[in-house]
Design brief:
Length: 382
Amino acid sequence: MRKRFGILTGGGDVPPLNAVIYSANKAANENNIELIGFKYGWQGLLKEDYVEISKLNINPYIGGTILKSSRVNLAKVADGAKNVISSLEKLNIDGLIVIGGDDTLSNAFYLTNLPIILISKTIDNDVGLFTEEGIVNHFTLGYPTAAGKIASYVSLNEGLRTTAYSHERIIIVESMGMHAGWLAISSALGNPDFIIIPEFPLNYEQFKEKVKERYIRNKNVIVVIAEGSRWNNNNHISADESDKDSFGHPKFKGASEVLAKRLKEDLKPYFDTRNINSVNPSYLYRSGRPNELDFSTAIKLGREAIKYLNNKPDHPVFLITEKRDEDFIIGSYSIAKLNNIEYFHRYVNDEFYNSDILNATDSAREYLSTINNAFLDEKYGL
């Protein structure tokens, strides 16, 4: 009997999602497997809302997800896991590919006896581990493209440093990142003056003095701040705690704007502060086409997901990126080793961030250099 696999995308979109879907469909066809796509993530499974992937015209170079997306916490849905299992059985699904960030992937921990392949995609780069042997899951899908973008946004070659220099501005650039500062840290290759991340609460008075001294010396300053950053009393710099999603995340309201306004007022005694500005690229980080590394990794992940499902795993398995010499390969990590998604969650630590200078360390720059590829070229001939 012909096998039937499902695939879904949940959470925030990233540029290589369609490439994964395209590649998985191609591998499924080659193995006489039917692949159906559940629309709007886990919501599609709950409502049995799906489409045959082979009937879609998928352009793998276009960002976003043709299957669309949503954020669903099965723990907050009445009989959520039970209904998902019922839908999979009713639709004769032999295996499921789940592509998402930590929230979307966390639902798999309620379905531990099913053949599920988990693919981490998030520009936050926070799904993985640090071990004595090295990094488990070297990067998440979507992070290489977003990392290249933020570095370019703040750089002298093609970013905000040019206008900061020309008009003697202080510019506060906002990065996505609710709990982890990986995207903000990746701006280091564009050489901002200071980087502020959630893992290391900000001592504002010390920061203000650093900005004042740097500006008086250089007449321009670039600061990158992650949206989820905190003051040193551990309160968010800007978040609406009364407006939380189903996973308990508050609505972040613009840390860059709050910080710029405070600096503008507090630095008035020292110089003209009218040119202190905030910039929030927001969804631009996750939009557009994937870069070369993101694209090639997505193609590998789609193929490997079908391969792993075809071998009938009896529990969910993470597919992970592994560094091998100058290339990246796809490995696996069993969910059986973990109690919940928090055990597969990495934060920026003091190996990668120097809180004294408020910037990335040499180790961080070395790590970032492994994923800082040029933008996608048309060499894959799909």
